[in-house]
Amino acid sequence: MTTTTTGYRIAALPAPLPAEVRATAERHLARGGEPLRCCLRDARACEAILLFNYEPPLPDSPYRELGAVFAHADPCGGPPDGLRYPADWYGRPQVLRAYDSDGRIHPASRLQDGSDPEAAIAAVLAEPGVVLIHSRNVVYGCYMFAIHRR
């Protein structure tokens, strides 16, 4: 699922999740607050969720990686249309890991404190050579969503 914004588009996990992901994922009831990569919001307590390995989009390079992510156990509608930045994640510090067209980490990568994530994204995308950003959790380093230049 992809949503468009001014200057960039935010991409959640592909919908629907592949059958092999659903077959091998751990199933849980949310405690509340788990970041759902399918609809880009925090889980509510007692929602059925999946925990599984996901390889974020990136050209073939040494920086490709596999990591744990959460998604709804049942297909959801994805992020709201016109999403500019996930509302539940404002105020949450994130690492904006920038990549070039070869899938290599770009020096424009930075920590944003969550106060103005859209300005931080715009600043990273303004750097020459940046074609993709992965928003990542500061503490665990896990992938949250992708940001593509429009």
Describe this structure in words.
Helix content is 10%, strand content 33%. It is mostly beta strands and 150 residues long. It folds into two domains: 16-72, no CATH class; 87-149, no CATH class. The strands form three sheets. The chain has a six-stranded antiparallel beta sheet with strand order 1-2-11-10-8-9, with helices on one face. The protein is globular, with a radius of gyration of 15 Å. The chain starts with a strand and ends with a strand.
Topology:
Layout: E1 2-4, E2 8-11, H1 19-24, E3 26-29, E4 35-36, E5 41-42, E6 48-54, E7 67-72, E8 94-99, E9 110-112, H2 117-125, E10 132-137, E11 143-149
Antiparallel strand pairs: 1-2, 2-11, 3-6, 4-5, 6-7, 8-9, 8-10, 10-11
Short recap of the structure:
This protein is mainly beta and 150 residues long. Helices cover 10% and strands 33% of the residues.
